[in-house]
Amino acid sequence: MASPSRPSPGGPRTALVLGGGLAGVLAAHELSPHVDSVILVDRRGDSASHAAPGGTDPAVMLHSAGARALDALLPGIVNDLVMAGAHRLGMTKDMAILTLRGWLAHGCDGQFVITCTRDLARRVVRERALRPDNITVLANTEAVSLTGDAYLLTGAVVRDRATGTVRRLDAEIVVDATGRGTGVADRISELGLPPVPVDSLDGGIAYATRMFRLAPEVAAGRPAVHIQPDPSTDSRGGTLLPVEGDRWIATFVGMRGTEPPVDEREFTRFAGVLRDRALVDLLAGAEPLGPVSGLDGLVNRRLHLKWLPRVPKGLIVLGEAETCFNPVYGYGASTAAMSVLALRRGLERYGTGDKLTPRVRRAVAKTTQGPWGTSSPGERRHPETVATMQPSRAALAVMRVLGRYTDRVLRAGTGRPAATRALVDIITLSRSPAALLTLPVVAAAVRGPGPDAQLHTPPPAAAPRARTTRPVAGGVADGGVAVTTKAVPIPAGSDADGAGR
After folding, report:
1. In 3D, which of 491, 492, 489 has the Cα closest to residue 461?
2. CA torsion angle for 126, 80, 279, 466 (degrees, to 10)?
């Protein structure tokens, strides 16, 4: 471990960002006005595809709160994404959502999600975010160790992946945005500190993804579909989302013992064992546009830096390096943008002084607490999940009571507008799970689903809308999923629990 070299007061200031994904690129952009230079260390090459090797990554899902955060960081960027081919889907007007207790009532359009491929999101965001002249990108380069001590982080040692050349980079601010890979959490011992406490939920999560072009009669006017898994009975779920180029990405998710197949012959058959047959009908006659790609070992993980004896000055952890989620929720892009927005606010208030990094770490943890609270209870319900931190008996009792109440709200969400709106707000990260405790939602839960509940039948397809690229309020353009003159409803699905997700 190299000895720390503290910068002289008033001298040039450098920020080092480890990771070239969305969180890292946005962090570099936000730091650039406040320091003399920003060095962005990106494991990928300049022209490298972001997709899984030989296949397709799940579609990027930028939920309402994430889209608004991204647009605050880069004004007009969400509209740029839509103009480049991304889709804006009203929830639940353009996306049918099957929760654990039935289909959410159709027609709620207060929130939305932006969907596109990771390559499109990467290209559009990088082109805008990396414009400042004081940002240097070290492509095909990775961090191999940290420098400093338990009190002060002074930089990192990086290696060129092509040549093997190793060099030390000194910086006053170090941002870990390395995602799920090896990051500061695994290297903190290099600074003389104990391991970072980690709340880990390992349910053996795996996904399989494939790109399709849907049959014209199927694609016309269809909403996207999201079938949430029920970890307490079965652990399989899936999504079908539109992306640029009149293509659709199907992603299946399973937990330990129910992993989706990566065999091309078995991929589509997996849709038939989900809790509803909606995806079977949507994929009927679809043309595959590439191989199946898959990934496993996707552990839900949340770091607790605040529980260390001390945290070195100069360290900030963002995006999935701080909290990562089951990919079925699609929260990665949104929480990355929201976390970087917390960084911006910290820079505006504290500058680059000593108060910055501890304040930003607390703000980021607060930002990701809501999404973690939304996603983690389901993982804990799966009998095969291995958790590193077990709640106390009192906490488990509270969780059981809240779980039963949440089930009632989910049922009410199939027909009661107050419950539907609250659930959609939570799913899109626009409100915290505490929104379920407001009086209108409690009243809806008490009253039950109502006569118009859609417990076992997907909602009808949205009226088809022509795509437009005109700017609209909030920087989000209005884009439909198809251009057509006829809407084809999704056939009713099975009301059996099945063996799905």
Report:
1. 489
2. -160
* CA pair distance 318, 326, nearest whole angstrom: 17
SS3 content of the chain, % helix, strand, coil (to 5): 35, 25, 45
Look at residues 81, 159, 146 and name the one whose alpha carbon lies nearest to residue 120. 81
CA–CA gap between residue 307 and residue 304 (Å, rounded): 6
CB 327 within 8 A of CB 207: yes
Query: Is the CB of residue 92 less than 8 Å from the CB of residue 56?
Result: no
Query: Is the distance from CB of 295 to CB of 207 less than 8 angstroms?
Result: yes
Q: Tell me if 455 sits within 8 A of 495, measured CB to CB.
A: yes
Contact 67, 466 (CB under 8 A): no
Alpha-carbon gap, residue 114 to 476, rounded angstroms: 9
Cis bond before residue 258 (omega within 30° of 0): no
Strand partners, 340: none
CB atoms within 10 A of CB 205: 26
Vertex 79: Cα angle to 336 and 125 (nearest 5): 40
Q: Which of 191, 210, 180 is nearest to 303 (CA)?
A: 180
Model's pTM, two decimal places? 0.86
Residue 348, helix vs strand vs coil: helix
pLDDT tens per residue across span 128-175 = 999 999 999 999 999 999 999 999 999 999 999 999 999 999 999 999
Contact 43, 20 (CB under 8 A): yes
pLDDT of amino acid 23 = 95
308 token code pair: 């260390």
Q: How many CB atoms lie within 10 A of CB 35?
A: 18
Closest CA to 130 of 44, 38, 248: 38
Round the average pLDDT of the chain to a whole number and report it.
83
Contact 73, 337 (CB under 8 A): yes
CA distance 103 to 411: 9
Beta strands 95-99; 141-148: pairing state: unpaired
Name the packing angle between helices 332-350 and 22-31 (round to 10°).
20
Helix (H) or strand (E) holding 342: helix 332-350
